[in-house]
């Protein structure tokens, strides 16, 4: 089974690209979706214990959590030590099920793939990219996004140019959905 890591900086089109793989029947494991499941599931209590007042009705309030970890590297590190093992556990289960099902190709959508050293866990890496102006336009279309939040996020991410240099495959998502779909199909044909 080939494991393709999908990554890219914020606003580059990871989720849309992942959906294109799913449309072709390729199983996807999204680290962001796994975090969302953790934040809304029984493990939310672990976050509340460490960051009191961040869980409302059993669900982590991302805004309240961000207020406690933003600009506080030590708090962010504590959060990551809580969440990352749970995400890896979900990923391990996903890979086990895919192998048992006889899948030949799966995609791990990992936003901080290079930053967390996860490229060693995949067979190939796809980086999605777009020009900086397109990225900013997409990011600022998100509810609640501010320049300060974007700066904090980008400070934790490897520069796009560096990610592209490390990639096995690159898709420029600014060239339109049809272009991206053709590129995804080409990668599936090559790897799957």
TrEMBL record:
Gene3D superfamilies, A to Z: P-loop containing nucleotide triphosphate hydrolases
UniProt GO molecular function: ATP binding; dephospho-CoA kinase activity
Segments forming a coiled coil: none
Gene Ontology CC: one annotated term: cytoplasm
BP GO terms, sorted: coenzyme A biosynthetic process
InterPro entries: Depp_CoAkinase (IPR001977), P-loop_NTPase (IPR027417)
Sequence similarity: Belongs to the CoaE family.
Biological role stated in the UniProt entry: Catalyzes the phosphorylation of the 3'-hydroxyl group of dephosphocoenzyme A to form coenzyme A.
Protein name: Dephospho-CoA kinase
Naturally occurring in which organism (per UniProt): Aureimonas fodinaquatilis
